[in-house]
Design brief:
Elements: H1 10-38, H2 40-47, H3 52-79, H4 86-95, H5 110-119, H6 123-151, H7 159-173, H8 176-190, H9 194-205, H10 213-240, H11 247-263, H12 272-283, H13 288-329
Helix pairs in contact: 1-2, 1-13, 2-13, 3-4, 3-6, 3-10, 3-13, 4-13, 5-6, 5-13, 6-7, 6-9, 6-10, 6-11, 7-11, 8-9, 10-11, 10-13, 11-12, 12-13
Membrane topology: Multi-pass membrane protein
Transmembrane segments: 47-68, 138-166, 178-198, 210-228, 234-257, 269-286, 292-314
InterPro entries: L-PG_synthase/AglD (IPR022791)
């Protein structure tokens, strides 16, 4: 009997939404507090440098990132044998962004539910998509961070270990035999939940669909292009705010802060990413008003832009998955 992914109950979705909004409010209060303490007028003056054209360009570069990663999702979806459907896969990927601000981003597993409804593909075949997508992001970000550190004039304390951790985690997550062995050892150590560990082993072995070198190379290229677009956006933003610290230094700070925020486990890295970004920009010699303004703008045009896109696409994806699901069941 095939297991289907657990469906997020409306009450749970409301809980995640309230948590997300509460964290956003806390971060916003923190940023406003910092701006007030360091000079609200100075921060407002920095923000006034940006007009609609500048914001549109930042959003456009973020969109490049999302499109590149959506194409990578489509690539992985084809590898597990999903029927052709580029628009379907892009719809699933973008719709999942609404759940980006759930703890550990586990809410994005809603994409697996949509796949199950629309194609009938069982969980043990589709769930590895979520894992390999996260691993591909870690590989791309680790490579970009390593290159940025090598090419930037200044280093970031702790960045190399973080890049190594991200790359190591990604390597483990994309090695079917290694991951299956880790699951087996964990089961032997705990000695409980045999059915759950059996499912985990099956999903680990299913990663073999993505082990083809050509697929992995293309996935890494798409991921690097996407995340470099956001690094470029951060650099351009700093230049507009009168703080040109160099493309590679800006990219290193952006990627490091994003990874550091993810390590906190907080929804969307909220709090951790902002704190790391402000601290690193301040260490680069930027005045507080510039650091706060740059951090606030880049987070709105990346994380919150993605959530906004997800909010628009999610209802469409949910409705179409139900409609297609009924058609699949009636065949």
């Amino acid at each position: 009997m095939t297991m289907t992914p657990p469906l997020p109950a409306p009450r749970r979705r409301w809980r995640d939404t309230v948590l997300m909004l509460a964290l956003f409010a806390l971060v916003a209060i923190g940023l406003f507090g910092l701006a007030a303490a360091t000079g609200w007028q100075e921060t407002a003056a920095q923000l006034a440098r940006l007009g609609p054209v500048q914001i549109a360009l930042l959003l456009g570069l973020s969109l490049v990132n999302y499109v590149m990663r959506a194409l990578r999702w489509h690539l992985f979806a084809r590898r597990i044998g999903l029927p052709p459907g580029l628009l379907r896969d892009i719809r699933h990927f973008f719709g999942g962004f609404l759940m980006s601000a759930t703890p550990g981003r586990v809410g994005e597993m809603v994409r697996i539910r949509w796949i199950r409804r629309e194609t009938g593909v069982p969980l043990d075949r589709s769930a590895p998509l979520f894992l390999v997508d996260r691993a591909a992001d870690l590989v791309a970000m680790a490579l970009i961070l390593g290159a940025a550190l090598a090419l930037s004039a200044k280093g970031i304390t702790g960045a190399l270990p973080l890049a190594g951790l991200a790359l190591g985690t990604a390597v483990v997550a994309t090695r079917p035999r290694l991951l299956a062995a880790i699951v087996t050892l964990t089961y032997r150590a705990l000695g409980c939940c045999p059915r759950i560990f059996a499912k985990l082993r099956a999903m680990a072995r299913a990663l073999r669909h993505f082990s083809h070198s050509g697929v992995l190379l293309l996935a890494v290229v798409l991921g690097c292009l996407g995340w470099m677009a956001e690094g470029l956006a951060f650099h351009i933003l700093l230049v507009w705010l009168g703080a040109d610290i160099g493309l590679w230094t800006a990219t290193a700070i952006f990627v490091f802060a994003t990874l550091a925020g993810g390590l906190t486990g907080a929804p969307g890295g909220l709090g951790g990413a902002e704190a790391a970004m402000i601290a690193l920009l301040t260490l680069e010699g930027l005045p507080p008003e510039t650091s706060i303004a740059a951090t606030a703008v880049i987070r709105v045009t990346t994380l919150w832009f993605a959530i906004g896109l997800g909010a628009m696409v999610f209802p469409v994806a949910e409705r179409m998955s139900k409609r297609t699901g009924h058609a699949v069941e009636n065949r």
